[in-house]
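Comment thread on ticket #2218

A.B. wrote:
> Attaching the input chain for the structure job we discussed in standup.
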Amino acid sequence: MIPYSVLAQNGPYRFALKNVDRAHGDGDLVARLRSELPRGEFPSAALAIKQANASLWKRYFDPGIDFLQIDDEDVADLVVEHLHDESSWLARNLFGAGGFVQCLLSSTETLADSNWQGWLKNTTDLFWGNDRGRLFPLRLTD
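C.D. wrote:
> Ran it. Output below, let me know if you need it in another format.
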Protein backbone atom coordinates (compact mmCIF):
# COMPACT_ATOMS: atom_id res chain seq x y z
CA MET A 1 0.00 0.00 0.00
CA ILE A 2 1.39 3.34 -0.97
CA PRO A 3 2.01 6.01 1.71
CA TYR A 4 0.32 8.80 -0.22
CA SER A 5 -3.34 7.95 -0.19
CA VAL A 6 -4.53 5.25 2.20
CA LEU A 7 -8.10 6.62 2.27
CA ALA A 8 -8.60 7.45 -1.41
CA GLN A 9 -10.49 5.02 -3.59
CA ASN A 10 -7.66 4.61 -6.06
CA GLY A 11 -7.45 0.80 -5.96
CA PRO A 12 -7.71 -1.97 -6.57
CA TYR A 13 -5.84 -3.14 -3.47
CA ARG A 14 -5.36 -6.70 -2.28
CA PHE A 15 -3.34 -8.44 0.41
CA ALA A 16 -0.14 -9.98 -0.98
CA LEU A 17 2.23 -9.95 2.04
CA LYS A 18 5.47 -10.06 0.11
CA ASN A 19 8.66 -9.92 2.13
CA VAL A 20 11.32 -8.26 -0.02
CA ASP A 21 14.03 -9.21 2.50
CA ARG A 22 13.24 -12.93 2.32
CA ALA A 23 13.39 -14.11 -1.27
CA HIS A 24 13.31 -17.85 -0.47
CA GLY A 25 9.79 -18.21 0.88
CA ASP A 26 7.81 -17.06 3.87
CA GLY A 27 7.82 -18.24 7.44
CA ASP A 28 4.87 -20.15 8.89
CA LEU A 29 3.33 -17.09 10.55
CA VAL A 30 3.35 -15.04 7.35
CA ALA A 31 1.82 -17.92 5.40
CA ARG A 32 -0.85 -18.35 8.08
CA LEU A 33 -1.71 -14.65 8.14
CA ARG A 34 -1.89 -14.58 4.34
CA SER A 35 -4.37 -17.47 4.40
CA GLU A 36 -6.57 -15.69 6.98
CA LEU A 37 -6.75 -12.26 5.38
CA PRO A 38 -9.69 -11.44 3.11
CA ARG A 39 -9.26 -12.38 -0.53
CA GLY A 40 -10.34 -10.21 -3.39
CA GLU A 41 -9.77 -6.61 -4.28
CA PHE A 42 -10.74 -3.44 -2.45
CA PRO A 43 -11.28 0.10 -3.84
CA SER A 44 -9.12 1.65 -1.10
CA ALA A 45 -6.38 0.60 1.28
CA ALA A 46 -8.56 1.83 4.15
CA LEU A 47 -11.39 -0.52 3.19
CA ALA A 48 -8.94 -3.44 2.86
CA ILE A 49 -7.62 -2.76 6.36
CA LYS A 50 -11.15 -2.38 7.75
CA GLN A 51 -12.24 -5.72 6.27
CA ALA A 52 -9.09 -7.46 7.53
CA ASN A 53 -9.60 -6.10 11.05
CA ALA A 54 -13.22 -7.27 11.11
CA SER A 55 -12.28 -10.72 9.81
CA LEU A 56 -9.43 -11.23 12.27
CA TRP A 57 -11.53 -9.91 15.16
CA LYS A 58 -14.29 -12.46 14.51
CA ARG A 59 -11.75 -15.27 14.32
CA TYR A 60 -9.59 -14.48 17.36
CA PHE A 61 -11.68 -12.62 19.92
CA ASP A 62 -14.55 -13.64 22.16
CA PRO A 63 -17.87 -12.79 20.45
CA GLY A 64 -19.01 -11.19 23.70
CA ILE A 65 -16.45 -8.40 23.21
CA ASP A 66 -17.79 -5.75 20.88
CA PHE A 67 -15.50 -4.51 18.12
CA LEU A 68 -15.74 -0.82 17.31
CA GLN A 69 -14.01 0.29 14.14
CA ILE A 70 -14.48 3.82 12.84
CA ASP A 71 -12.94 5.29 9.71
CA ASP A 72 -13.34 8.43 7.62
CA GLU A 73 -16.41 7.13 5.77
CA ASP A 74 -18.18 6.36 9.06
CA VAL A 75 -17.42 9.83 10.39
CA ALA A 76 -18.58 11.48 7.14
CA ASP A 77 -21.87 9.55 7.27
CA LEU A 78 -22.38 10.58 10.90
CA VAL A 79 -21.67 14.24 10.11
CA VAL A 80 -24.17 14.22 7.22
CA GLU A 81 -26.80 12.64 9.47
CA HIS A 82 -26.28 15.32 12.11
CA LEU A 83 -26.30 18.18 9.60
CA HIS A 84 -29.72 17.02 8.36
CA ASP A 85 -31.04 17.24 11.94
CA GLU A 86 -31.54 20.94 12.76
CA SER A 87 -31.59 20.15 16.49
CA SER A 88 -28.14 18.49 16.53
CA TRP A 89 -25.14 20.25 18.02
CA LEU A 90 -23.32 20.27 14.67
CA ALA A 91 -26.22 21.82 12.77
CA ARG A 92 -26.85 24.44 15.47
CA ASN A 93 -23.23 25.41 16.01
CA LEU A 94 -21.73 25.22 12.54
CA PHE A 95 -24.38 27.16 10.67
CA GLY A 96 -25.03 30.03 13.04
CA ALA A 97 -24.18 33.69 12.56
CA GLY A 98 -21.02 34.28 10.55
CA GLY A 99 -21.35 31.38 8.13
CA PHE A 100 -19.94 27.87 8.01
CA VAL A 101 -16.18 28.50 8.00
CA GLN A 102 -16.25 31.05 10.82
CA CYS A 103 -18.54 28.84 12.90
CA LEU A 104 -16.35 25.78 12.27
CA LEU A 105 -13.17 27.58 13.28
CA SER A 106 -14.80 29.15 16.34
CA SER A 107 -16.36 25.85 17.46
CA THR A 108 -13.07 23.99 16.95
CA GLU A 109 -11.19 26.57 19.02
CA THR A 110 -13.83 26.35 21.77
CA LEU A 111 -13.59 22.55 21.87
CA ALA A 112 -9.78 22.65 21.79
CA ASP A 113 -9.83 24.90 24.88
CA SER A 114 -12.34 22.72 26.77
CA ASN A 115 -12.21 19.34 28.49
CA TRP A 116 -11.45 17.87 25.04
CA GLN A 117 -8.13 19.74 25.01
CA GLY A 118 -5.93 16.65 25.34
CA TRP A 119 -7.89 14.73 22.71
CA LEU A 120 -8.74 17.37 20.11
CA LYS A 121 -5.60 18.95 18.73
CA ASN A 122 -6.33 22.21 16.96
CA THR A 123 -3.24 21.91 14.77
CA THR A 124 -4.75 22.82 11.43
CA ASP A 125 -7.52 24.98 10.00
CA LEU A 126 -9.52 22.37 8.06
CA PHE A 127 -7.06 20.97 5.54
CA TRP A 128 -3.81 19.07 5.15
CA GLY A 129 -1.35 19.28 2.29
CA ASN A 130 0.62 16.38 0.87
CA ASP A 131 4.04 16.76 -0.70
CA ARG A 132 5.75 13.52 -1.80
CA GLY A 133 4.01 11.57 0.95
CA ARG A 134 4.65 14.11 3.74
CA LEU A 135 1.57 15.65 5.35
CA PHE A 136 1.62 19.23 6.58
CA PRO A 137 -1.11 21.52 7.98
CA LEU A 138 -2.60 24.18 5.74
CA ARG A 139 -3.69 27.24 7.69
CA LEU A 140 -6.31 29.82 6.77
CA THR A 141 -5.43 33.46 7.20
CA ASP A 142 -7.85 36.39 7.19
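A.B. wrote:
> Thanks. Noting for the ticket: Residues 1-69 form one domain.
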